Structures are given as structure tokens and as C-alpha cells.
Amino acid sequence: MDEESKAPRLAPGCLFYRALSRDCDVGHFLREQASVPRVSKSRQPHGPSTPTRRMNCREFRHKHDAYVDDTLSGIDIEAMGRHLRLCDSCAALDTRIRRSLLLARNLPTIEPSAAFAERLQMRLAHERALHARTSKEGGSAFGFDGARRHGAPFFTGAYVALAAGVAMAAGLMVAVTLTRDNDEAIRLAPVVASIPEPEPSPLAMPAMVASMPAGLSVWPAVFVAQQAPWRLASYAAGH
Amino acid sequence: MADVAMKRVAQRGPTIREQLKAMDDADVVTSFLEGEERAFQELVERYQTRLLNFIYRTIGDREKAEDLVQEVFIRVYRHLHRFDRSKKFSTWAYTIASNLAKNELRNRSRNPLVLFQTMKGNWDDEDRPLQFEDTTARPDDLYRKRHLRELVAETVAKLPTHHREVFVLRELEGKSYEEIAEITDCNLGTVKSRLNRARNAFAEIIEPWVD
Known about the structure:
The complex is a heterodimer.
Chain A: H1 3-6, H2 15-21, H3 26-35, H4 57-69, H5 74-86, H6 88-105, H7 114-136, H8 144-150, H9 156-180, H10 183-186, H11 206-211, H12 215-238
Helix pairs in contact in A: 4-5, 5-6
Chain B: H1 2-22, H2 25-33, H3 38-59, H4 62-79, H5 89-110, H6 112-123, H7 139-158, H8 161-172, H9 177-184, H10 188-210
Helix pairs in contact in B: 2-3, 3-4, 3-5, 4-5, 5-9, 7-10, 8-10, 9-10
């Protein structure tokens, strides 16, 4: 028998089922239910009925930003207002947010300093002079004057720049094609990490071994001398 | 004859200014692109304070904010011919300002000395904007009001950069969600989520001081 079947089964219409299915505390839900007069369908007055919506805390918080910004529909605003009257925690949240926003919106604005306008005019004059000079030379660095005054998207300078770009690209392609033939010659052999073959030790030269009168005691010393660098390396790696 | 011409010029100057003042942003931009240099001054007058406050609240350094506002106007002047006139000029100007402010914050985070100097500068009373006080109020009220303002400004500065940007655009600049999405280059859902978090964080930080 699984866990779900052990749990008490509640009918979907049951009050507690509805309270648990919403993200809302049961006490609050019950208060909310108790405050709304129950009108049976048969006793509902004739004529246009006003739609009433129930709302839980999760939905309230989800829509709270839009509520503060006053962008909700009329029905939602009414439902939010009703929820506020019934739920203390959501009412506290609403008050907290609104009060803090009121403070933020009333922060004093700062004005530019007296030197601001003067500095800006100097910079703008410099920009104007720059544009005037570049337009006299037959083009503008930003395409500003040509485009602005005559409404043309391109001008001579742009075509020159385009031609230079194409020429540069063609040159690059030729250079790449020419160097491709020598590509094999300059390619280096891959480096493979491996233990190098031990070089023959000068101590183990045949002539030297032959010259030793007591060869037997010399061999262990030769082996130790050959393997000394590896032992040192492995000792260092181990520590 | 010259007097008449001077009078005409003198009459025409203010008239054009008045006409520019009555125009909306799109018409002022069009007027500038058609060669009316005074139209740019009109744009500067309309946006300098708003952009200054936006950048100042985002980066927290008044002098640097002024420099960046100047940079915004220079970029607008250079690139106005490329501006897509089917969109709002204010959104474009704020986008440039937002990008410059973000660059400034990024550069500061790479240079801790600059960050320290800025923070130190912000604590200095002399760097604060001069505000005229209401002399009819009681001194303890004035103190409380000033303290609260400083507190609110510090709390805004404490918000994480992304949240602060959205918060300032919405609460201090009154931008719509769509405009904020365009300015910050985010989708609408991200803007809503950031604003929600920023509002909650702001309320949480400021709450103990308000009660």
C-alpha cells in the first residue's frame, strides 16, 4: 500500500480540501469563508450578478506588483482588496511595500552643476568642428554630415573604405594560399609524454668495467647511479 | 534695414525655441536632423536632469554621473542619424546611459581603489547635493527627514546592480515595464521578477528605520 492511499481522502468539494489545495493557512481560509455570506444558487437574486473571486496568499503575492502599479483588471483589484481585508500577513506586506516605495519616490532629485552646461557646449562645439572638418575633406568619420544633411546612407568615403577592405581581404586570401604549400614543412612532430630511454651511464662503459679489478661489487653502484634521477623525481612527486 | 533684420532674427530665435518646446521628442529629433542645431539644446534641456538622476542613483558618484551624462549627449549627437525614429527617443537615450553606467560599475569592480575612493567620497557630507530646508519645521523633524532621505539613498545603493537599475527606472524615473525591458535588454518576465525582488529587498532593509 503506497503512501498516497494511506492519507485520508478528502472530497474535492470539502472545505479542508480547498484550504489545503491553496497555499494559505487553514485558519485564514476559514475566517475568509466565514466572512462571506453563503447564498445558494436557488436564492441568488435575478439580474446581473457581480462576479466574486476568491484569492489565496500565493496569488495575492504573485499579483501584488501589478496591484501596486494599478495595472490589474477591476475584478482582480476587488479580489485583492477583499483578500487584504481578511489576511493580516498580506495586509502587512502591502503596507510595508507601499510605505517604502513612497519614500523612494520622494527622494530629492539632483540638478546638474553650474559648469555642466558650459562643459557640454564646449564638447559639442568640438564635435561640430570635427564633423565640419571631416565633411570638408570629402567624408565624415561617422557618416554624420553626409547622411544627416542629404539623407544619403552612403558617401564617397564609405565606398573607398569598402574597396580598401575588399583589397585587404583578397591579399589575405592570396597570402594564405601561398603559405599552405609550406604548411607540411613547418609542422612539428607531436610531442608525446613518455619516460625517456635511459642514457648509457659513463660509469658502465665496457672499458671501465673491464678495468675494474673487482667487478662484482661495482655493479650495484652503477645501477643506483643510473636510476638516481628517477628516484629523486619520484620522491619529489610523492612529497 | 539692418535693424529690421536684427529684429526679425531676435523675434525668430525665441519663436523657434518656443516651437521646439511645444514639440514632442520625435519632432525635435526630426528638426535636428533637418539641420536645426537648437533642437539638440532642447533635447539636452529635457533629458539632462533625468539622465543625471538615473546615472547617479545607479553608480552613486555625482561627479562621474555628470561626466557620463555628457558622454551620453555626445554619443546621441554623433549617432542621432542612426536612431530608429519609429522608437521612443527617451528609451534610446536611457539605453545609452544604462550601458555607460554598467561599464562604469564593471570598471570599478576591476579597480578596487577607485571603488574605495568612490565609497569614501559618498560618505563625505560635502559631496551631497545642497538642499534647502524648510525653516518652519522643528529641528528634530528636519534631522529625521534628512536622515531618512540619506537612509533611502543608501538603501537604493545597497541593492544588487541588476535590481537597482530596474528599481530606479521604475520607481524614480517612472518608466513602463516594456521600456525598462528595452533599456536593460531583458525580457518582460525578467524585468518583473527583478522589480519584485528589488521592491521586497528595499522594503525589508528600510522597514526597521521607518517604524
